[in-house]
């Protein structure tokens, strides 16, 4: 009887997981400890794709709009879930994106001041990074043929992105800085490669991180505790850390206090000029998350 019950729970969860791929993704669940949780399912992190701590489980990011920027997210592993069902959005006052708009948690600026190209973006490619990169963007500069480098691309100076000035996309307080990582030779990176980065706390447990700065290029005024405004100069674009060529890697994070870790979460630009490969006429998009293959400014 207990085995049958466990099988029924497993079948129910599998059915819901399939439905969530295309549903409005508002859910109600009960944990195995009897706790009830309802909210917007903002993300699913598939541990089977992870590099370092791979498993067959999934983690759900459940957002509750009635809470604050400090406690509005719950990250729960499917092994802790007893039952789960899809519900209507009408049960909630606002969506996750509405909450970000209301709490001024939007990205205000692109990281450089000329047209830049998204080679991977917000839900594409980075899902192997143990939940740290699922909603990151990788941003580069390209020529008219969409090539990222001139000559043979054997040295960093061949890359159009290398050495570009990088500006803060958001406002907040600096909580982490690394500036002394060595820039890699394009095409490879050593074990233990150090990312040069700036980590900014926006509000509550919402953070924003920008990675792969050029060695020793981050401004001397950028230190832990510094207040940052969107558009402030941060440093020069480089090729430090886990990267094969110069680019900006950036993502919004949520600090999960219970697990003592960050999770990459979806984010949106307040206003961004966007054009595509096929259409050179830019359009201003509001509260928007640009996709792979877009040019932004």
The main β sheet shows up as: 11 strands, antiparallel
Ends apart, CA distance between termini? 60 Å
Q: Briefly, what CATH class of the largest domain? A: Mainly Beta
Mean pLDDT: 91
Give the CATH H-level superfamily of the largest domain: Glucose Permease (Domain IIA)
CATH architecture of the largest domain, by name, is: Distorted Sandwich
Count of DSSP H/I helices: 2
What is the helix/strand order? HEEEEEHEEEEEEEEEEEEE
List the domain count as a whole number. 2
> CATH topology of the largest domain, anyone?
Glucose Permease (Domain IIA)
Radius of gyration: 20 Å
The geometry reads as: globular
Provide the β-strand percentage band: 35-45%
Give an account of the 3D structure.
This protein is mainly beta and 297 residues long. It has two domains: 99 residues, SH3 type barrels, CATH 2.30.30; 181 residues, Distorted Sandwich (Glucose Permease (Domain IIA)). 9% of the residues lie in helices and 35% in strands. Strands 6, 7, 9, 10, 11, 12, 14, 15, 16, 17 and 18 form an eleven-stranded antiparallel sheet that branches. A hairpin with a 6-residue loop joins strand 16 and strand 17. The chain is globular, with a radius of gyration of 20 Å.
